[in-house]
Amino acid sequence: MPLALLALAISAFGIGTTEFAPNGLLPDLARDFHTSIPTAALLVSGYAFGVVVGAPLLTALGARLPRKGMLLVLMGLFIAGNLLSALAPSYGVLMVGRILAAFSHGAYFGVGAVVAADLVKPEKRAGAIALMFSGLTIANVLGVPAGAWLGQQFGWRVTFWAIAAIGVVGLAGVAALVPRTPRPEAGLRRELAAFRNPQVWLALGMAVLGWAPVFTVYTYISSTMTDVAGFGAGAVPIVMILFGVGVFAGNLVGGRLADRALVPALYATIGATAALTFLFVPAAHTKATLIIGITVLGAAGFSTVAPLQLRVLDVAKDAPTLASAANIAAFNLGNTIGPFLAGLTIDAGFGYTSASWVGGLLGVGGFGFVVASGLLERRTRTRAGTRTPAPDTVSEPVPAEAPRHQPA
């Protein structure tokens, strides 16, 4: 494994920790800011909104910057956002800090995915992307549960101070281990041209809806555990660790599946995620089945990440950076839509398990995008094959003694 992948994973660990940290702190945040839990959950959706806006915006602004320099700038922005969150005197300021940190998220993973794919042989690109994203998955195993524990023991502000410190370590890792890279050859105009390909938009649709089920359920997991399954608050970090174990395993499996056969991997991973989200409705009512259900759902959900990221790199071809960042924005658009819709159903009195119904329906939509993309790809190949003469219709060769054209 190239050391540069380790550096990317270190920063991904910090980013993943701050992205998911509020999930284990919602009751504390709601109490301190005198809001409801669904309102506190908007700190998660607000972060996702920041990714959606920041990913294409910052990537476009840095289109001509060397990729290593861009990564360093983004980690600096990440640290600043978490420091502001730790010091926030009000809910509004905390939301601003979350969005500021989120601005670095999408662009970082978008640029980082391109860097990771370029570090290895073509047949190992999905595996390299999965290794970078392993930092994000380890954050779910260690970072998020540790953040929840710190918040419960010392207050939620300590969690954000710790995340800022992780960001400093990530910044140092990128500076020391990621090799210097030349300025990208593709300018902003060329990057934008990739969006003329309908397959790019279909890939983004897969990312929005195919991943949304996991985050829709996970956003309300602490409340589902305590109010539906009957867990005590102290069990929340432990179950989050198990979720993270599933996430870590699923991420690596998804990378291997995508390197073997990308489109079948998309069918399998997105279809499984949607189905398991529906199954989480009955599973959430008992402790044992909730633990199994959230672990398996985490594995299925994160198995989609590497295939989805590789898909957009493939269809964007020679100008992948902005499309890659847009794909991260698409993931987080799903993170915004899912919890928001689930919050509406919860506020309407349908209970915390309604989040699974919302997530499952979104997953079905994501699977529909995979089907549409596969049909379009098949149609394109069929048309290309029609234009290519079949071997048995090739005309007889011209006799060698009378060549029609002489080389200049």
From TrEMBL:
<keyword id="KW-1133">Transmembrane helix</keyword>
<dbReference type="Pfam" id="PF07690">
    <property type="entry name" value="MFS_1"/>
</dbReference>
<feature type="compositionally biased region" description="Low complexity">
    <location>
        <begin position="383"/>
        <end position="393"/>
    </location>
</feature>
<feature type="transmembrane region" description="Helical">
    <location>
        <begin position="233"/>
        <end position="253"/>
    </location>
</feature>
<feature type="transmembrane region" description="Helical">
    <location>
        <begin position="200"/>
        <end position="221"/>
    </location>
</feature>
<keyword id="KW-1003">Cell membrane</keyword>
<protein>
    <submittedName>
        <fullName>MFS transporter</fullName>
    </submittedName>
</protein>
<feature type="domain" description="Major facilitator superfamily (MFS) profile">
    <location>
        <begin position="1"/>
        <end position="381"/>
    </location>
</feature>
<dbReference type="InterPro" id="IPR036259">
    <property type="entry name" value="MFS_trans_sf"/>
</dbReference>
<dbReference type="InterPro" id="IPR050189">
    <property type="entry name" value="MFS_Efflux_Transporters"/>
</dbReference>
<feature type="transmembrane region" description="Helical">
    <location>
        <begin position="322"/>
        <end position="342"/>
    </location>
</feature>
<feature type="transmembrane region" description="Helical">
    <location>
        <begin position="95"/>
        <end position="117"/>
    </location>
</feature>
<dbReference type="InterPro" id="IPR020846">
    <property type="entry name" value="MFS_dom"/>
</dbReference>
<feature type="transmembrane region" description="Helical">
    <location>
        <begin position="354"/>
        <end position="376"/>
    </location>
</feature>
<feature type="transmembrane region" description="Helical">
    <location>
        <begin position="36"/>
        <end position="58"/>
    </location>
</feature>
<dbReference type="InterPro" id="IPR011701">
    <property type="entry name" value="MFS"/>
</dbReference>
<feature type="transmembrane region" description="Helical">
    <location>
        <begin position="290"/>
        <end position="310"/>
    </location>
</feature>
<feature type="transmembrane region" description="Helical">
    <location>
        <begin position="158"/>
        <end position="179"/>
    </location>
</feature>
<feature type="transmembrane region" description="Helical">
    <location>
        <begin position="129"/>
        <end position="152"/>
    </location>
</feature>
<keyword id="KW-0472">Membrane</keyword>
<feature type="region of interest" description="Disordered">
    <location>
        <begin position="381"/>
        <end position="408"/>
    </location>
</feature>
<keyword id="KW-0812">Transmembrane</keyword>
<feature type="transmembrane region" description="Helical">
    <location>
        <begin position="265"/>
        <end position="284"/>
    </location>
</feature>
<feature type="transmembrane region" description="Helical">
    <location>
        <begin position="70"/>
        <end position="89"/>
    </location>
</feature>
